[in-house]
Design brief:
The chain has 208 residues and is α/β, with parallel strands linked by helices. The chain has a single domain, classed as 3-Layer(aba) Sandwich (Rossmann fold). The chain contains six helices and twelve strands. Strands 6-5-4-7-10-12-11 form a seven-stranded mixed sheet. The chain starts with 13 loop residues before the first strand and ends in an 11-residue tail after the last strand. The relative contact order is 0.17.
Length: 208
């Protein structure tokens, strides 16, 4: 949800209006919802921070639901949204209002490649990487988690959206090998995991 990573040609992104709500579906799975007068709180709200972040990184931008909610709640927080599929990035701009959010920078890129090259630290990192309802392979691999740890500001927060399943105990163990789990909540079958550093690291310049 908000889960706009790469999918094959068979998983074509589709924008539809259902019960007055503008939705982005991929493979018949809802990826994003427009934040307008018909929006109702959902899993995306649970991924928002409890304090105003200095800047934010969203891995798996999708239609930009998290970016829009973040801006509405905390103001024009400098935000980078990484989305691999250019079709979804275009829909986010044209159908979900991201063109009107000047604080949001859309990067059409592979999330793992972006992390590997990134030399900026972020106060908030939202990890919402799914392919038509399935978690992107490698999201919780040690290399990916170490990159997330590296780009996270010293007192920053990384928030993961994970499906509640039999794999959850193993997924939690993977996360805890690299990051300190500070909170867990369940929303509509999703598990939101909030993390910080296990140790402080050298600070890189924050994104302006």
């Amino acid at each position: 949800m908000g889960r706009g990573e790469w999918m094959g040609a068979r998983e074509h992104p589709v924008v539809s209006v259902e019960s007055g709500r503008t939705l982005l579906r991929v493979g018949d799975v809802i990826q994003s919802v427009a934040v307008d007068e018909r929006y109702e709180p959902d899993v995306w709200d649970a991924m928002l921070p409890t304090r105003t972040p200095a800047n934010a990184l969203i891995l798996g931008l999708g239609g930009g639901t998290i970016a829009t909610l973040l801006t509405r709640r905390f103001g024009p927080v400098p935000t980078v949204g990484v989305e691999r599929d250019p079709r979804i990035a275009r829909l986010a701009r044209e159908s979900f209002g991201l063109d009107g959010l000047r604080n949001v920078q859309v990067e059409i890129d592979d999330a793992f490649g972006f992390l590997g090259r990134c030399q900026v630290r972020f106060d908030l990192v939202c990890v919402d990487l799914y392919v038509a309802g399935k978690m992107e392979h490698g999201v919780l691999a040690p290399a990916a988690l170490r990159h997330i740890d590296r780009v996270l500001a010293p007192e920053g927060e990384a928030v993961f959206n994970i499906w509640s399943s039999r794999h959850l105990p193993d997924q939690m163990r993977r996360i805890q090998r690299v990051l300190a789990v500070e909170g867990i909540s369940e929303v509509a079958g999703n598990v939101i995991v909030r993390c910080g550093h296990r140790r402080f690291v050298t600070v890189l310049p924050a994104m302006s």
